[in-house]
Amino acid sequence: MRILFVTAPFRSHLYVQVPLASALYTAGHDVRVAASPEMAANIAATGLTGVPIGPVVPLDTEMNAAAQDLAVLHLTPDRKKAHQREYAQDDPAAELAASIAGIRRLFNPDGAIHDLVAFADRWRPDLVVWDPFVYSGSVAAATSGAASARLLFGSDGYGQLRTACRGPAPGPLQDDPVRDWLEPILHGYGRDYDERTAIGDCTIFPMPPWVWRPEGVNHLTMRHVPYHGPSIVEPWLSEDIGRRRICVSLGLSHRDTAFGFELQASVMFDAVADLDVEVVATLSAKQVAGLPRLPDNVRVVEFAPLNVLLPTCSAIVHSGGAGTFAAAVKHAVPQLIVPNTYFSEKWWGPLAMANGVEEQGAGIYAGDADQLTADGLRADLLRVLDDESFAANALRLSAGIRSLPTPNEVVPLLQDLVLRHRER
């Protein structure tokens, strides 16, 4: 089969797709990964074959501008201890419209859609696996006649909003911003719009079952096998430091592209300065620029492979990135999650993950990045370090994910999806 993956212009989103794309490739299928041109080198570094589509979008500028334009429509609750199921509970239609407007502007320029449709017309994929931010993948699946699968990177925000807008009544949405946007494009290619355009034939959900998900969506659970890109193990990672080690990771997307409000390194360092721990902070020079002298117990590194670093750690503080979360679960590390606050960003994965680990007793939803204080973070960190139940529950969750289907085990399920699609 020919499998076309379509990803958003973030390494973190690409890295969620790599294990499944690699599993399909090693099963003998032909695999391509389509993304905007600035992702070409990142795709090549994974060993996969890239397909550039559309123009380069200046994300730093555009994401901040989009957030300002859409702020008036941002109706989601802004409480420290919100739950994913509360996403836009007062007006899901307005939130859905705002979110679709944002991703249309940022990740789906007309040029990208037309480029991908043209490529799919030539290459004729059997299956298109697309990032939920990149609807050009859905359009390409429809125009080429391929089966269509969304591959989530976090929680199913769009599925949740569509279910909330529909209510108990079956059938299409009365007010559907995806239809309003994509139906004219599909008609231009001689195709019709239907619900599979919005959410695919199935939705691959690479999260443990204890991470909240909406009802009414055909979710296919897959174990998230963490991938962190090419790396080399530095000697210090194997050293016995004689005290507990804490990892700090603020996420690839905010590191690569400056937008929104993230946990500030200064808050983190103030929280740990007097603790008897070693802190390994994977931060860029830009993220620590302008700070006073680092505490003696903090080691800042540009990058460290989490599959090597986390087994040496007693806790991790992070922003709720999918790869970091999956690695922490795999290696049984208690988590303190601090969601970033770009537009409705926390509702696309970090909040559901924070809710999940807190409900399972394996971590703490420490608070949103714009609300967190050094004193509050320090208290939560000491609680996680000193209460042995957090480590025990993290170990339980690590054992539990071993029963979830791996990407290799999902391959035959996707093959069946393609066969059923052909028989329609």
From TrEMBL:
<comment type="similarity">
    <text>Belongs to the glycosyltransferase 28 family.</text>
</comment>
<feature type="domain" description="Erythromycin biosynthesis protein CIII-like C-terminal">
    <location>
        <begin position="268"/>
        <end position="417"/>
    </location>
</feature>
<protein>
    <submittedName>
        <fullName>Glycosyltransferase</fullName>
    </submittedName>
</protein>
<keyword id="KW-0808">Transferase</keyword>
<keyword id="KW-0328">Glycosyltransferase</keyword>
<dbReference type="InterPro" id="IPR048284">
    <property type="entry name" value="EryCIII-like_N"/>
</dbReference>
<dbReference type="InterPro" id="IPR002213">
    <property type="entry name" value="UDP_glucos_trans"/>
</dbReference>
<dbReference type="InterPro" id="IPR050426">
    <property type="entry name" value="Glycosyltransferase_28"/>
</dbReference>
<dbReference type="Pfam" id="PF21036">
    <property type="entry name" value="EryCIII-like_N"/>
</dbReference>
<feature type="domain" description="Erythromycin biosynthesis protein CIII-like N-terminal">
    <location>
        <begin position="23"/>
        <end position="251"/>
    </location>
</feature>
<dbReference type="Pfam" id="PF06722">
    <property type="entry name" value="EryCIII-like_C"/>
</dbReference>
<dbReference type="InterPro" id="IPR010610">
    <property type="entry name" value="EryCIII-like_C"/>
</dbReference>
